[in-house]
Amino acid sequence: MVQSLAWQVRHYPDPHVRPECFELATVELPEPRPGQVLVRNTWTSVDPGLRLRLRPDAPSGYFAAFPVGVPMDGVFTIGVVEQTTDPAFPVGTTVWHAQGWRTHAVVDVAEEAMNGIARLRALDVSVVSPQTYLGPLGPMGLTAYAGLHVVDGLRGGETIWVSAAAGAVGSLVCQVARLLGHRVVASAGTDQKVAWLLDDLGVDAAFSWRAAPVVESLRAAAPDGIDLYFDGVGGDHLEAALEVAKPFARLALCGSVSDYEGEPTGPRNLFLATSKNLTLRGFRGSAHVALLEEMQARLGGWLAAGLLESRETVFDGLESAPTALADMLAGRTTGKTLVRIGAGPGPLSMPELNSVG
Ligand SMILES: NC(=O)c1ccc[n+]([C@@H]2O[C@H](COP(=O)([O-])OP(=O)(O)OC[C@H]3O[C@@H](n4cnc5c(N)ncnc54)[C@H](OP(=O)(O)O)[C@@H]3O)[C@@H](O)[C@H]2O)c1
């Protein structure tokens, strides 16, 4: 019998995520049955979408809400197989799966977890670090790539605005769009993030959404208008995109993080979608699993060539996961927000005290 430490919800946030909303439980795991493996988790993901599930009912069509008082299930994670019943997943294999925010998990090999994107997969970690599969070579890369795909942004050569641009998805969208030959306008919440976007990621223009009304900053950065908008924020950002969009512009609606901890706002100017013949397309990365290999080949090639930067904010120890989520939602992290549970193959170490890298 293996024991796992696992985060569970104590009460739902009202409205802001705080560590006291969660409790760390000890769970006894059964021996893996045929078709199952035991995984020791090493890295787990911290995503804004978790906040959409920290409520009695998640938005219709989305991943299910986390019930109170049971380990949270359906969080993208990297681990190492410790016991196996399947020759395709020998002991020592690095894998991804959906049972994160815990130290160990018994995983069904055949389960189509999280719409299939988090089905147990063996990962090649010979040339990239395991956690790269939580960022550019995993669901974040797929979301960035799928969003550009659904609005025909992969052909390049246009002006694109990317919001939440210094985050996990946005920083990839900026870089991929630039590599494809787009003119990239980026927005983020601090001057340091704006400087990183301009100086390191090489975007053409960037602004802080806190410095002035978003629509004014966007007009100044894109005086001729935008052809594409990659929306991670919603609210005033989506309104600004509708205002500054050129006729027939396309908007990829990836998320609306500005709404996740409060009442949804806007857009109040949706008629502009009609008057300008705009296309607004909501999408989920998990609906585009068919693009995963194509995305990994392209982004993997750019990573290997040193053309793609994969920035991480790492919190050490499973105990830090709730703090990591709160910090990410508050804009205190840059790039992909991750929790490191263990250092890879070797004996289990208990989670360390929090520290932000
Ligand atoms: N459709 C999908 O399949 C899919 C998959 C993954 C993520 N998403 C969505 O994509 C978006 C980004 O996700 P991510 O994982 O890359 O997270 P992230 O950008 O790494 O972190 C979220 C960021 O949102 C920004 N933010 C928070 N409140 C804001 C506000 N009121 N106005 C403007 N910005 C605000 C903060 O950055 P600043 O400091 O810049 O404000 C924060 O760092 C989210 O909406 C998420 O739900 C969708």
Describe the 3D structure.
The protein is an alpha/beta fold. It has helices at residues 139-150, 168-179, 191-199, 214-221, 235-244, 271-275, 292-304, 321-329; strands at 2-9, 22-29, 36-45, 77-84, 94-97, 104-108, 121-122, 159-162, 183-188, 205-208, 226-231, 245-253, 279-282, 312-316, 336-340. It has 2 domains: 2-131 and 310-340, Medium-chain alcohol dehydrogenases, catalytic domain (Quinone Oxidoreductase, Chain A, domain 1, Alpha-Beta Complex); 139-287, NAD(P)-binding Rossmann-like Domain (Rossmann fold). Strands 3, 4, 5, 6, 7, 14 and 15 form a 7-stranded mixed β-sheet that branches. Strands 10-9-8-11-12-13 form a 6-stranded parallel β-sheet, sandwiched between helices. It has a two-stranded antiparallel sheet with strand order 1-2. Helix 4 packs parallel to helix 5 (235-244). The radius of gyration is 20 Å and the shape is globular. The model is unreliable at 343-357 (pLDDT under 50). The site of NADP nicotinamide-adenine-dinucleotide phosphate has 31 residues, from helix 2 and helix 8.
Annotation keywords:
globular, alpha/beta, binds NADP nicotinamide-adenine-dinucleotide phosphate, 2 domains, six-stranded parallel β-sheet, seven-stranded mixed β-sheet, 8 helices, disordered C terminus, Rossmann fold, Quinone Oxidoreductase, Chain A, domain 1, 357 residues
